[in-house]
């Protein structure tokens, strides 16, 4: 495994639409392993392949909305699609590609996602709260969308100070 460099918002790669994965091969597994290590090192809750310069529909989402005492679940999502979205939430979001900036984004309160695992097997997963936001945020990355382009407003310095230490970047 190897750490990969996380691109920042001035890189044009982040604004390109990613192509679907067609080969579930060793190269994909290396990408996923490297992304896991990179996400862990960055202490984020999600990471999309274009953030490490790979224009493929691959992302990771860390589900932290789990029962107390249970470990978060890290999902590897290949060619993910949101096929059900319900409700609405307006919460602050951050991004590993936009360090230090947070903005309020309108997202569904609940989503169901269909994706493939690293071996090409289809599965479904759902999320609420932060996890629903994270699924949306990562799938936006696969479509070349960075959250700052759809923010209702950016957080002020005072609001940032108040949430200091609780940031969740993806
Ligand atoms: Zn992001």
Quick structural overview:
The protein has 170 residues and is an alpha+beta fold.
Give an account of the 3D structure.
This protein has three helices and eight strands; from the N terminus they run αβββββββαβα. The mean pLDDT is 95. The protein has a five-stranded antiparallel β-sheet with strand order 1-2-3-6-7, sandwiched between helices. Helices cover 22% and strands 34% of the residues. The chain is globular, with a radius of gyration of 15 Å. It starts with 25 loop residues before the first helix and ends in an 8-residue tail after the last helix. The longest helix has 17 residues, at 26-42. The chain has one domain (12-164): Peptide Deformylase (Alpha-Beta Complex), CATH 3.90.45. It is of the alpha+beta class. The structure holds zinc ion (ZN).
Features of the shown structure:
170 residues, alpha+beta, Peptide Deformylase
Ligand inventory reads: zinc ion
Just give the CATH class.
Alpha Beta
- CATH domain fold name: Peptide Deformylase
Residue runs with pLDDT of under 50 for 5 or more positions = none
Report the major sheet: 5 strands, antiparallel
Structural class: alpha+beta
- What level of helicity do the residues show? 10-25%
The fraction of residues in strands falls at 25-35%
Number of strands: 8
The total tally of domains equals 1
Please state the second-level CATH architecture. Alpha-Beta Complex
Spatial order of the strands forming the largest sheet: 1-2-3-6-7
Count, helices: 3
List SSEs in N-to-C order: HEEEEEEEHEH
Radius of gyration: 15 Å
